[in-house]
Records
---
Amino acid sequence: MANPLILEQVVKEFGEKTAVSEISLQVEKGEIYGLLGANGAGKTTTMRMVLGLIYPDRGQILYHGKPFGDELQRGMGYLPEERGLYPKVKISEQIKYLARLRGMSASDADKSLRYWLDRFEVPEYYDKKIEELSKGNQQKMGFIAAVVHKPEILILDEAFSGLDPVNVELLKETVIELRNAGTSILFSTHRMEHVEELCRNITILDRSKTVLQGNLREIKKRYPREEVILHTTSEVNGLEQIEGVKAVERKERGYKISISNVAAAKEILRKAMDESEVEHFEIMEPTLNQIFIKEVGESNE
Ligand SMILES: Nc1ncnc2c1ncn2[C@@H]1O[C@H](COP(=O)(O)OP(=O)(O)OP(=O)(O)O)[C@@H](O)[C@H]1O
């Protein structure tokens, strides 16, 4: 069966401005796909096209192998970056209304809404208005509005921004549960650690263009390891003098050392073992944050 969501060379222009140029990607069933990029890179525009809110100028978007149609909208959920719910309407009214629009029966919509309010430990919000809630709690209601009808494809644009750490964890757990239940999730964020935790495949956009794409594990393997973490029982002198060592940072429990080649790492370990006792030695994989800055930073220079 075709993947739930496929973008093929999708282009969007606003007048002279190309917001998205030839993006291609595929989101599989039960995966969280990361869409990353600096401000203005084209993430929201891409998501709005996936939702059928705006149309591509070229290329195509396929849902289970088919182009966009009314019935498809029912299978999608969207948490917009900006808040999308009416401030003065009762939460239960508007979320149930949205669920019914997307094909749920009144009783299923009610059941599902109550399930989610309980899940987020705020059953009393059923009778409240959005304007009565804090910003973070409004965001949680936006999330419920996106998932209340059990969509197959879920679009999350900066879903965790503005939430406190406890609520970030809560939403993260929920997103993982939805993925495990088979939901295909297109996820945009500026928080690289969330991508590292959640996403299998990623696309990094830079000023409308795809600059990096693929499986996150494999991408990380392609980048050189340029950092060593070393913990020893006593001080090790002269690490800076080793060939290939670029910088040595003293940390609470040892050293963080930037290197330009693997030979330097071996030499660091040898010296540390000669002069002290090594408690921990690790040649670190680059973080996604470092990769992002490398790709997006360099092309902006
Ligand atoms: N309706 C529009 N009319 C004209 N230009 C637009 C429109 N929507 C987006 N753009 C432009 O397209 C580019 C991509 O914008 P988009 O909102 O997709 O970026 P983004 O990656 O979501 O950024 P951010 O991280 O800041 O949310 C920007 O330069 C933006 O100014």
Note: The first helix runs from residue 43 to 50.
---
Amino acid sequence: MGNLLTINGGKPLEGRVTVRGAKNLVPKAMVASLLGSKPSVLRNVPEIRDVDIVTGLLSVHGVKVSKDPETGDLSLDPADTKSATSSEIDAHAGDSRIPILFCGPLMHSIGEAFIPDLGGCKIGDRPIDFHLTVLRNFGAVVEKRPGGIHISAPKGLTGAKLELPYPSVGATEQVLLTAVKAEGITELKGAAVEPEIHDLIHILQKMGAIITVQTDRTIRIEGVNELSGFNHQAIPDRNESASWASAALVTQGDIYVEGAMQRDLTAFLNIYRKIGGEFEVDDHGIRFWHGGGSLKPLVLETNVHPGFMTDWQQPLVVALSQAEGVSIVHETVYENRFGFTDALVRMGASIQLHRECLGSVPCRFGQRNFLHSAVISGPTELHGADFDIPDLRGGFSHLIAALAAQGTSRATGIEIINRGYEKFMDKLIGLGADVELSSLGR
Ligand SMILES: CC(=O)N[C@H]1[C@@H](OP(=O)(O)OP(=O)(O)OC[C@H]2O[C@@H](n3ccc(=O)[nH]c3=O)[C@H](O)[C@@H]2O)O[C@H](CO)[C@@H](O)[C@@H]1O
Ligand SMILES: C=C(OP(=O)(O)O)C(=O)O
């Protein structure tokens, strides 16, 4: 029946947390192992739910996934890859978006794939039209089936000239995972260039792929007949790092995030400094703390890399509710990613949502009835409340608001946090949070 998390707020979070491999890379690296003719090894693998989901999906397709009991490193052996039934696949699909990335690798290895309807955070419609268009351009045939799609390549997969209408992370990965073994050359214009995409490219290159990334969002892939395995250390989770950084600011605390990497957090660190947060970078991580005095308001736009990542926005909105003055956050990646602010308003934050593009540049959601700009006025005192965790980042923002608030909050749906935050409860307790997890019973 799930758990109830009771949070007694008002204590600064202080101490140290370690972030491991990125949720937005590790499951995709696991999928890439399907393309190899030899086993792969993936290191720095976090214990999060999306890794369990992909382990299950790979296993039903015959990939042997074993975990080193000491290091947690994964060995992935695709020697006996096979078809799986839609019910086997359904049983493992969970609430992740990764199943869509099995299309190319499964078509290359067994000629077809069943892809269940996708999960992932409920932050708008999240269509898969770009994925299906690029797959059809490679020569794939897509059929709607109950509970998902069936995809096959009766005439094989051939490289193509492609252009994405928007630099989608998932669709770019779809192209990479399909093009590396397609016949001939693929050119993708309008590609996403997030750090996790570069890491996936490095993995594919280790396997034998030939991929060139140009400075203008064009990626060129020369298909090869065979790929081998990889041995790779996943990049650390920049989104978890940014979440803990915001938690330090919101609770007036001081957190050293071991594994946080400046290179992948440049846009975040600029904003962190502008709002009044302090940080210090060393070779192993970054220390984040509240600089004292009032936080400063700002105007901020989320964007694709190298812009300010949309997954960083939610915890930072809580910090902005404590800044002196009016801030604006214009969400330009997802049309409907401010639903989480309702609970913050119930906790005392002053946040108004608007349909207009309130940032400095109009985005594709303007004049389309989406509440995608937030005006946040501060500082307001936060008080405890009861809430149900809506999604990963919105949920994290509720939790840190509750940790900073006066009084007690009760949160349900806490399991969602496991999708992207490894050992979340242990980390909170280690940082001195006054929290208690109890079972809701039947
Ligand atoms: C597992 C993973 O890596 N998740 C990340 C990934 O999600 P994901 O890969 O799903 O996000 P995308 O980059 O594809 O989505 C960006 C935008 O493109 C739109 N779109 C996308 C595909 C498509 O076929 N049609 C379409 O319209 C989406 O609705 C959204 O508005 O990138 C997002 C943007 O950095 C992050 O917030 C997610 O944490
Ligand atoms: C939106 C997110 O993830 P996903 O794409 O896996 O739902 C996220 O990590 O904030």
Note: Residues 24, 97, 124, 126-131, 166, 168-171, 192, 310-311, 333-334 surround uridine-diphosphate-N-acetylglucosamine (ligand 1) (CB under 6 Å).
---
Amino acid sequence: MTGPRAGSEDAAGADAAGADAAGSGPARRAQVLDGTATARAIKSELAERVAALAARGVVPGLGTVLVGDDPGSRAYVGGKHKDCAEVGIASIRADLPATATQAEIEVAVDRLNHDPACTGYIVQLPLPKGIDTNRVLELVDPAKDADGLHPTNLGRLVLRVDGPIDSPLPCTPRGIIELVERHGIDLAGTHVVVVGRGTTVGRSIGLLLTRRELNATVTLTHTGTRELAAHTREADVIVAAAGVPGIIRPEHVRPGAIVLDVGVTRVVDDETGRTRLAGDVHPGVAEVAGWLSPNPGGVGPMTRAMLLANVVEAAERAQV
Ligand SMILES: Nc1nc(=O)c2c([nH]1)NC[C@@H]1CN(c3ccc(C(=O)N[C@@H](CCC(=O)O)C(=O)O)cc3)C=[N+]21
């Protein structure tokens, strides 16, 4: 793949350098890594594959297990089923009350494992306090793990440095990589600094990026890292996934670098008193970075598109 190399002396990098710390010079805002448009393109490709499966009598089905009535979790699950309808994937919902016991949740998981209409499913996180989340997640049939976070699937990712991976991949890491590549950026040889050690993004994305065909170099930092800016300023690509609003500020970013905002923290807006989502990237970063994923409209829609991709791929695998 060709295209602007992160950290190269291309026009975007040079212009952004003009808007560096001194604050003078022409402010050239970062180019947008448009997750909404990219997810739309992926969904239309997936709709064709779903149609091909339907012609052979196969309808992929996505299941969700939602426990409790957290408005955020409800909204995410609703969005996933809306996405399914768009591409022709069937929806299966298991909604349990906040009072559901460990055993009741495990029964819901067991049902989906044995439901032939369910190709893949997710257990929406977080689960209520008192529930052993790891125990629930380990009961998911690895072949139906639409999140790609089952220990078996993460283990395969650890063990397979090259060659095909015939198991589901973690959605957000995969979405980040697709988002960057589909904007013509080649990650091979780049230095990616990941901020955040959560299992869904920080701890798993390096397993994908360092595979031989992607060939990126990865530094994993987190909220306990000393001199965070010294690390992030070395990055061609920053993946901000700490869940700390605004943790990545302009001075953390090398002019022209690629910045992905993965943060989804619910905060109360000082001015309106309403809750809103806050990303990990300070707005001023747009004046320094070469490329920036907006939030919303960046990594979130890509995560959802990759969930659909995992379900379609599981259905295709079950065919052969
Ligand atoms: N088992 C499980 N799998 C998950 O993948 C999972 C989860 N649990 N728990 C919560 C997090 C969070 N997450 C998001 C996905 C899409 C958007 C998304 O599409 N956001 C829109 C904006 C939505 C809004 O404004 O409310 C956007 O970025 O444009 C956000 C957040 C998936 N998660």
Note: The longest strand covers residues 61-67.
